[in-house]
Structures are given as structure tokens and as C-alpha cells.
Amino acid sequence: MSDGSAPKGHGARTHAAPPRGRARPHTTRGGPPAAPQAAQVRPVRLGRRSTAALALVTAVGVAAFGWPLLAGPDSGLGAHARDAPWLFAALLPLLLGVVVATISDGGLDAKSVAMLGVLAAAGAALRPLGAGTAGIEPMFFLMVLSGRVLGPGFGFVLGAVSMFASGLLTGGVGPWLPFQMLAMGWVCLGAGLLPGADVLRGRRELWLLGAYGAVASVLYGTVMNLQGWPYLSGLATGVSFVPGDAVGDNLARFVAYCLATSLGWDLPRAVLTVVLSLALGPAVLKALRRATRRAAFEAPVTFEEPRA
Length: 308
Description:
Elements: E1 13-16, E2 26-27, E3 33-34, H1 48-66, H2 84-104, H3 110-130, H4 139-150, H5 152-170, H6 177-192, H7 203-228, H8 247-261, H9 263-295, E4 301-304
Antiparallel strand pairs: 1-4, 2-3
Helix pairs in contact: 1-2, 1-6, 2-6, 3-4, 3-5, 4-5, 4-6, 4-7, 4-9, 5-6, 6-7, 7-9
InterPro entries: ECF_substrate-spec_UCP037395 (IPR017196)
Keywords: Membrane, Transmembrane, Transmembrane helix
Transmembrane segments: 52-72, 84-104, 141-164, 176-194, 206-223, 270-288
């Protein structure tokens, strides 16, 4: 008489082995198994290839932002509309190179691509809520928290893709878009490199993320100012760019330009990022970490022979 259970030995069973780096449960003498200390699992790990790809993208970005400072007085600097298409044409294959490198390093699969799409869509949807009014951009806190949980490689790709998607969504496509993609990628990359990703939790982590978000928000605005400042005309002598002048003198004028023009946008963005990180951070971090654990990124699938 059958007891309703499946017969033994029918078909092979598969199971996913525990992710690398996660501690296995162990028993204690005279007591129940001790709770494992689960290390953080990141869907996009930084291997040698992905690190090299990110370094190349960063070098290209630094050159794209900073080359006007080294231009001569007869360079005939014009609008970024001239070089932005070339940067955009170089940035897309470089981003693809980062993705390919992480795949070859074993850090990107279909599940992490799906999470990338969901978070990029969420970030793109958050950006129009503030419409850039007085620097109010709520997408920053989500990008910082996502980079923290999911790692620097995932963070860089997420930041760039989110900004690209938001540009398409809001109609903000122009010479500034590839520079925004780079700058937001760096914001998320830095969040993934913050210390204590595996052990730091609670209020201390929230304050760390809030402080980083504030600094990153101001630096994002500063870097984006560098993208447009050399090409503006009609400015006062004390804040205008002088082609061929010493780099130190031009940087002093640039600091004055930022203080006089964009600080009123950068500081509200920083304050909003801190407030949202402290208020919504616990729930968002918990959701991201739960989704990462349930997705079992990096878990290799193994096969067992059926038992007799």
C-alpha cells in the first residue's frame, strides 16, 4: 500500500551548492547547530578582467572631463556637442566590456541582469520626481544603497544604465548624457567600495551611507560642472575659464564658479540623500539583501546521482 511518497531512485535530483564565501552551519557539542555567519553575496564580483575594464573606463572618463584644462589658448574650445558623440560611442562598448569581463570572471548571470534591469528602471523612474528642481534628485539614495549591497562592479554598470534610461525617459538626451552616465557610475562604484560591507549593520551603516551620499552628491555636481564650465562664455573674469592658463589658476576659478553657481543645487541634493538614506535605508537595504540571498548569486548548480 502506497504511503503517497515518490519512489526512491526515480530521476536525478539537482540542488544549488551554498555560495562561495558563505559559512556552512556547524554543530556545537551538546547543542543545536550554530547560526552561520552569512557573508554578503554580490552578483557582480570584481575579478581581474572586470577591474581592468573599470580602470580603462575611469581613465577615459577622467580624460574626457579634464582635457580642456590642458588645452592651449588657440585650441578654439567649443561646445561639448563636438566631443560628446565620440565619448558616447566609446562609452557604450566600454560598458559592454565591463559586462563581458564580469561574465568571464563568473560574476554576472541572468539573475543579476534581471536585478540590474529592475533597479535601473526604479532609478530612472525616481529621477523625474524632483525634475532637478533645486537639486532635488531622489534617485541618488537608491543608487548609493544598491551599490553598497550589490558591489562596485554591479554599481558602476547600474549607475550608468540608470542615467541612460532616465535620459530617455525624461528627454534629457544631449552632450551631457555620457558624462552623467560616467559620473553616476562612479557614485555607485564608490558606494560598493565602502568598508564594512560584510559586518557593518544598523545605525552606523546608515550614517556611513548618508555621509557618503552627501559627499557623492556634491562631487557629482562638481564633476558635471567641469563638463560644462570651460565652454561657457560671458562670465566674470574671476570665475571664467582661460584657455592656456596654468591649471592651478583655472582650478581656483573653477572652485569660485562652483561656489557661486551650483552649490545651491548640490547641497539640497546632499541633504535629501541623507534624509532618504536614514529614513528609508533600513527597509531598502533589507529588501536588497533578501533579494540577493534568495537569488543565490554565485551558487553553482551541482547534480547528484539518484540513490538506489
